[in-house]
Amino acid sequence: MPYVAVGKENSGAIELYYEDQGDGAPVVLIHGYPLDGRSWEKQAAALLGAGRRVITYDRRGFGRSSQPAAGYDYDTFTADLDALLTHLELDSVDLVGFSMGTGEVTRFLGTYGSSRVRRAVLLAPIPPFLLQTEDNPEGLPRSLFDGFAQAARGDRPAWMTGFLETFYNYDVNAGTLVSEDRFRASWNTATDASAIAAVACIETWLTDFRADLTRIEIPVLVVQGADDRVLPPQATGDRLPGLIRDVQHVVLPGGPHAIVWTHADQVNHELLTFLG
């Protein structure tokens, strides 16, 4: 199995697990919380079928990657992404992020620029800035995220159950767009993640990406479910057309947060059309 080293913790290396499949123009898929690179199975199949080279990887703390005690912030996540791109010598690459992964895409373009990147896709985005402040009244109150972190620390498996119910809009979509088996598989992946990462990543959701967004010089596609309960469109995707200079914004009626699974056909259509 392929790994790339991105640092050290005491006597051990910190490594990211990745998969590199297919030929053609490269596209890197960056997963959301609390899953791993396997959550892209429907998009990876469509992209491989379209003749693309598809790279997925597990964020530090998740999946088959190392689970260090530190490094759970977007500057580090983005440095990890840069290490992977450098290791694979990728150029003219498309970056596709889902949920938390949209933070890596945004921070990477804001920090490292777009010289190696052709296009970017933000699915169920976390930018621009989730925290409610005096200059960001559209955000959400700090107490909400403090409650999330407390719940994750207190009973992580129970927190993951509640989070995934919101992730899939399970009360509405169970038995139709989401099977019990899919929900159980997601829960298993989520609870296999680092207990430290599961809590620490909640704080990263409050990262301010507004300055990064203004530095993006390449075309960007934004796709979000209209019924996203995890990252409500009015606090996230609806605001991006005013902050990104070249953006296409698509809203999927009835879509929950987990559109890469529940609305995979529509997401894949938008993805393949935009990436070309």
TrEMBL record:
Domain of life where this protein originates: Bacteria
Domain AB hydrolase-1: 26-264
Xref: SUPFAM superfamilies: alpha/beta-Hydrolases
Pfam families: Abhydrolase_1
Keyword Oxidoreductase: yes
Record InterPro entries: AB_hydrolase (IPR050471), AB_hydrolase_1 (IPR000073), AB_hydrolase_fold (IPR029058), Epox_hydrolase-like (IPR000639)
Keywords: Oxidoreductase, Peroxidase
Keyword Membrane found: no
GO molecular function, one term: peroxidase activity
PANTHER family linked: HYDROLASE, ALPHA/BETA FOLD FAMILY PROTEIN, NON-HEME CHLOROPEROXIDASE-RELATED
Family per similarity comment: Belongs to the AB hydrolase superfamily. Bacterial non-heme haloperoxidase / perhydrolase family.
Name listed for the protein in its UniProt record: Pimeloyl-ACP methyl ester carboxylesterase
Lineage of the organism: Bacteria, Bacillati, Actinomycetota, Actinomycetes, Motilibacterales
